[in-house]
Design goal:
Cyclin A, domain 1; Methane Monooxygenase Hydroxylase, Chain G, domain 1; binds adenosine-5'-diphosphate; binds nickel (II) ion
């Protein structure tokens, strides 16, 4: 009984994300849902909680909502009315809150299901899909693909960074190449290692082509 919920959220989530361009579109959700299925099966996590959380994880994100507090209330109200039960609802909300934590010391995920969803979300930022998302995001911000004079983010001033003095290739070093070491689960890490190798091979070719060498 606890597993029967209504109304199914998929249509609502899809409608809300249909015209998203910050890299959190519906197909990102689709991929994260598919990936949690794979990891949950391998890790023995509760697949229902993982999939439900994957489906909802960006709903209250402040990048998607002019009023994130209202979006958070909407999410809580939906979960309360959904029939999943207060325990599952609280679990889903806890995972989403931990995933979207901004600021200093990142709190660790408490539950296996949280670890699985966070891994799947991070996996979508790396590998072939991750590469596509970087260039889509950079293009939407009118940033260049590469500029050999652009320094690592840590060495840019806040003003330089905000002025858009950032490139798609730079984002690999700022974030993407660091993600494999942040994986929570063994299976997630294995998937991340494969995607990481693909990005390294991609970058090797990119620089060789940049210099006209291959
Ligand atoms: P999330 O909210 O999922 O943690 P972000 O909003 O940081 O992730 O990123 C969403 C997507 O946009 C990711 O695929 C990420 O690599 C890409 N992205 C974010 N910031 C940049 C950037 N400065 N340059 C290029 N791509 C970026
Ligand atoms: Ni996400």
């Amino acid at each position: 009984m606890r597993r029967a919920f209504s109304p199914p959220p998929k249509r609502g989530v899809r409608a809300k994300l249909a015209h998203e361009s910050s890299g959190h579109d519906w197909w990102h959700i689709h991929r994260v849902v598919r990936t949690v299925r794979t990891i949950a099966r391998e890790e023995g996590a509760d697949g229902f909680v993982c999939e439900l959380t994957a489906l909802l994880h960006d709903m209250a994100d402040d990048k998607l909502n002019a009023d994130p507090a209202a979006a958070q209330r909407e999410l809580e109200a939906w979960l309360a009315a959904s029939g999943v039960g207060p325990e599952t609802a609280a679990h889903v909300l806890e995972i989403i809150a931990t995933m979207s934590f901004k600021g200093g010391s990142r709190p660790p995920m408490r539950t296996l299901e949280g670890k699985v969803v966070q891994d799947a979300d991070r996996l979508d930022a790396i590998g072939a899909v991750g590469i596509s998302r970087v260039f889509a995001y950079s293009g939407a911000k009118n940033r260049p693909i590469h500029d050999p004079s652009v320094m690592p983010r840590e060495r840019m001033t806040e003003a330089e960074y905000r002025s858009g003095n950032d490139t798609a290739i730079n984002h690999f070093y700022e974030k993407l190449l660091k993600l494999k070491d942040l994986m929570n689960t063994d299976y997630g890490r294995r998937m991340a290692e494969e995607r990481h190798r693909f990005m390294e091979a991609y970058l090797d070719r990119f620089y060789a082509e940049w210099e006209g060498l291959s």
